[in-house]
Each structure stands twice: as C-alpha cells, then as structure tokens.
Design brief:
Layout lengths: L4 E4 L3 H12 L4 E4 L13 E2 L1 H10 L2 H7 L1 E3 L1 E6 L2 E7 L13 E3 L2 H14 L4 E2 L2 E8 L4 E7 L6 E6 L1 E4 L6 H6 L3 E17 L7 E6 L4 E6 L5 E7 L16 H8 L5 E17 L3 E2 L2 E3 L5 E2 L7 H20 L5 H30 L3 H19 L2 H11 L13 E3 L16 E4 L2 E4 L9 E6 L16 E6 L3 H4 L7 E5 L5 E5 L4 H9 L5
Parallel strand pairs: 1-2, 1-12, 2-8, 5-14, 12-19, 21-27, 24-25
Antiparallel strand pairs: 3-7, 4-7, 5-6, 9-10, 10-11, 13-16, 13-17, 14-15, 15-16, 17-20, 18-19, 22-23, 24-26, 26-27
Helix pairs in contact: 1-4, 1-7, 7-8
C-alpha cells in the first residue's frame, strides 16, 4: 500500500492534520487503535487562534453554535468571589473570536471527522502501529488490524506523522528523550450536571489550602466540568470513585452544590514533558506525542491543532515540488520554542494555584485577590491576558521563514500572526481573515495599484493576490505608504516589504528548495 503521508492517531491533532492535508490535495492514510472517535469530553477550551483555523476551514460557526461561551472568570475563596475577569468580548479588536469558548474534545473530534469524511476519506479504525523503518526517501509502517489479526498491512509513505499521544510508540521507537516530570498530586476530572445558582457561562476557580477545584461551564443547561487536585487523604487509594469525595468538593467551594448526575469521572497523574526533537528524518511528532503539560489555561489540545496547522502546509509544498527539505525543518524551529515556553508558563500557574506550601497559600489567599482585582480592572492588562491565553500573541520572528525589507515603522513584523484589520469586503466591514481562507499563500497589497500579473508563473497556483486600500486601520498600525505582506497558509507573515517584485517572491521560495 502506498501513500504520501501516514498519520498515526486520530485524536484532534491527527484529524486536523488529515483535514489540512486534504485541503492541499495530499494523499494520506490515518489510523487509530480506537473503534471510533472518543466520547469523553477531555479537553474543553478552544482558543481564539484555534477558532481562526476553524474559520479558515469554514467550521467556526459550528463551534459557536454548539459550544458554550464563557463570559466571566472568577476566583472564589471560602464561598466568596475574590476577583473576576469579564471575558465576554475581552479580545475585541484583536480577533473575530474575542471570547473564551468551551467546546469539548469529543466535539472537536466529531467536527473534524465529519469534515474528513466529507472529502471522501476515512480513518482506519481498530488499526495500530507495530513498527516502522525509515529510508532515504520514504518510510515503511507495519500495521496490525484488530478486526483481522491474520492480515498484515505494510504502508510505504513519504512521511509519517506521530499524533499518537503522550505514550507515543513512534517517539519511543525513535529513541527520543521525553524530559520533564510528574506532578506530585493526583488529579480528578468529573463531568456533571449541577443544580446551583451560578450563571451558566461563568468559570469558577475555587482555591483552598487542602485542594483546588475549577468549574468549567459546558454546552447544555447545568453541564459542568469539575477539575481539581485529589485531597491527600485519598493519595494512597487506587480505587477512588466520585461519591467518595463529593463532600470534599462542597467543603472546598463552600457554595450550595446540587450534583444531579455524573457523566464521566477519572483520576490521573499529570505530567510535564517535552521531546528533544520534533523531527527525525521523515518522522514528525505532533501534539501530546511531542509535549504534555498541565491543563492550566486550556492550552493543550489547541497546541496540537496548531502543530498540525504549522506542519501540513510545509509538507504539501515539499510534496508538490515547490520547496525542499529546509522548509519542513522549520516545523521544529517554530513549534519547539513554543512548547518549551508553554511548559514553563503552565507549570508556574499550576504550581502557584495548587501548592500546599504555607507561604504560597498565604500569598494566594491574602495577597493575590487584591493584585488580581487591580490588574483585571485595567483594560490593557485584560487584553494582554487574553492575547496570551488565546495564543494569538505568539510570533515566529526568529524563524528562517520570516523575512522583511521595510523602512516604515510598523507595529507588526515578519513572523507575526497576520494583523487583525477591519476593511470593506463585499460591502461589509469585516476582518481581512475572511479573505485568507484558501489553502495557499496570500499576497496582501496594501495601498498599491495591485500585483495581479507579476506572480512568477511557477507560483501562480500557490499565491493568491489580495488588493486592499490603505485605510485608517492600517495607518494605526504604522502603514504610511504601499506595503506588501506575503501571508503563509497558516496566516503568519512570511515576507514583509515596502516593495515587491517577481525576483523577491521567487527568492523567498527558492531559499527553501535545498536539502
């Protein structure tokens, strides 16, 4: 059996990779040991950056309709609200998705799976990877079909994507380090139906010295995810059920809780680890196979989705002969630093929020609420927090893919996510993100006479020209005269220049043709 790419794992990351490859007309096979997409909620938050990916795919409206908007984040202690952040429209002026959005993992998987099937593709369910071998120009994966144990499957592909989770067999067979550690506490997660007096779109973090609980609102009346640390009194018990410590949760939050139904419950250990390389020859690690961390900030699933979004367009250009091996080397260059930052960021938050240390508890209880009330009432700080949690802040400025030739003093640079600018589109005031939906580069020509006839012939299928007027929104970002932005297929700025020419565009692509 032959294909261009084989994807191991059909969770959110693997399914996103499959959908993106389908958009670029790249042939692939995707497998998973499960019999079907997961039914547990698992990850819950979808960031604005992930929503922009869904917008590009034409799926954002489904998420908005079937998800739960979170309009307030509040910290409680002893049953009283100590600090709050109004998250409704916190990102106004930054993105088309200015709110925190709950959309459970199984819904993400179902959404992506239905999108995949709409392309005429499907997952090889109940199929597991046994081993693989890499060669100079291909990789061979040996599979096991659980429905037919006597059937041997061997697939030859140009590349292999490991989306097979924290226990990744691919990572283990590659012999990669997975450095990090395990948090001391055990944690629990419970999806329940609550009958209480809190608004349905309010996220509550309840802090105490004994344990830590967070209540995430989910779609549907009274549906909540409760996540927290397992009290020390349960530390030595292997068989813990939810009924054993319902009273502990009530004692922690000190609010009337009417838990009417338990939909899912699990106790587990949390890890924070990262592989030392995200690429070995023709194999790539994505999502939890590459990095795992605490759930603080709801970053995990979103980071996997963006790993897939970053890598797939690069693989497509290489497989289409437009670029060479240097291009896919930038996957590690761009995503590894973000994973390292994310581990440190989530570790600091999680350690502070869960520590039983007396001094940290005093700071958390008596000092932090006052500081939070002060900073959360400051609009620019709230926007900065939103930018970080939504993952729209991250830049690839140091990437070899980010080049600029400008004299204008702009408020953005090559490597940044495309600026969020409102302009007239089909008679409506909309963000330019509505123009960046095709699976190709977009050349934004700002305040110029256009560039339609000067794209090099061999690149016309890979670049769409978009002519935009130099309006006041661009001027606020420092644009004073004509400007050209070559936007990558993942909506980051690749090339930024005051002037443009066929030679400059060709040179940008030629730089990544070598091995």
């Amino acid at each position: 059996m032959h294909t261009q790419v084989i994807i191991i794992g059909a969770g959110p990351t693997g399914l996103m990779a499959a959908c993106q490859l389908a958009r670029f007309n790249i042939d692939f096979i995707i497998i998973d040991t499960k019999a079907a997409p997961t039914h547990e909620s698992r990850a819950i938050l979808v960031t604005a950056r992930s929503m922009e990916i869904y917008q590009q795919m034409g799926l954002a409206d489904v998420v908005l309709q079937q998800g739960q908007l979170i309009s307030k984040f509040a910290i409680y202690m002893n049953g009283r609200e100590k600090a709050a952040l109004e998250t409704a429209d916190a990102g106004n002026g930054l993105t088309d998705f200015p709110n925190l959005q709950a959309f459970e993992q199984f819904k993400n998987e179902d959404l992506l799976y239905q999108e995949l099937k709409a392309t005429g593709r499907d997952v090889l369910w109940r199929t597991s990877l046994v081993s693989f071998d890499q060669y100079e120009d291909h990789v061979v994966a040996n599979l096991y079909d659980k429905s037919d144990p006597f059937r041997k499957i061997s697939i030859k592909a140009s590349y292999l994507l490991a989306c097979d989770g924290a226990s990744s067999l691919v990572r283990q067979q590659l012999g990669l380090n997975f450095d990090g550690g395990t948090y001391q506490n055990k944690f629990f997660v419970a999806d329940v139906q609550l009958n209480w007096q809190q608004p349905p779109n309010k996220l509550i973090a309840s802090l105490s010295r004994i344990n830590f609980c967070v209540f995430f609102p989910m779609y549907g009346i009274g549906n909540y995810r409760i996540l927290g640390t397992l009290p020390e009194s349960f530390a030595g018990k292997d068989d813990v059920c939810f009924d054993d410590f319902k009273d502990v949760i009530t004692a922690n939050v000190k609010l009337p809780l009417g838990i009417e139904k338990l939909n899912w419950f699990s106790v587990y250990k949390l890890h924070h680890r990262c592989a030392d390389r995200f690429r070995i020859n023709r194999c790539f690690l994505l999502g939890d196979a590459a990095h795992i961390h605490s759930p603080a900030g709801g970053q995990g699933m979103n980071t996997g989705l963006q790993d897939a979004h970053n890598l797939t367009w690069k693989l497509a250009l290489v497989l289409q002969g437009v670029a060479g091996d240097k291009l896919i080397d930038t996957y590690h260059d761009e995503r590894y630093p973000f994973a390292q930052w994310l581990m440190k960021f989530t570790d600091k938050i999680f350690a502070f929020m869960t520590s039983c240390n007396w001094l940290i508890y005093q700071l958390r209880t008596h000092v932090m609420p006052h500081i939070l009330r002060l900073i959360l009432s400051t609009k620019w700080i709230s926007k900065r927090i939103f930018r970080i949690l939504s993952q729209i802040w991250y830049s690839y400025k140091k990437s070899p893919l980010s080049l600029q030739f400008i004299k204008q003093k702009l408020k953005f640079s090559a490597g940044d996510r495309c600026p969020y600018v409102i302009t007239e589109i089909d008679g409506k005031s909309q963000s330019i993100y509505h123009l960046l939906t095709e699976p190709k580069f977009h050349l934004l020509c700002i305040g110029s006479s256009g560039y339609n006839n000067q794209i090099p012939d061999h690149l016309t299928a890979h670049i769409k020209v978009v002519n935009l007027s130099l309006n006041e929104n661009w001027q606020k970002l420092g644009v004073k005269s004509g400007l050209y932005l070559l936007i990558r297929p993942d909506n980051y700025i690749g090339l930024l220049s005051d002037e443009i020419s066929p030679g400059l565009i060709t040179g940008y692509f030629d730089a990544f043709k070598g091995n």
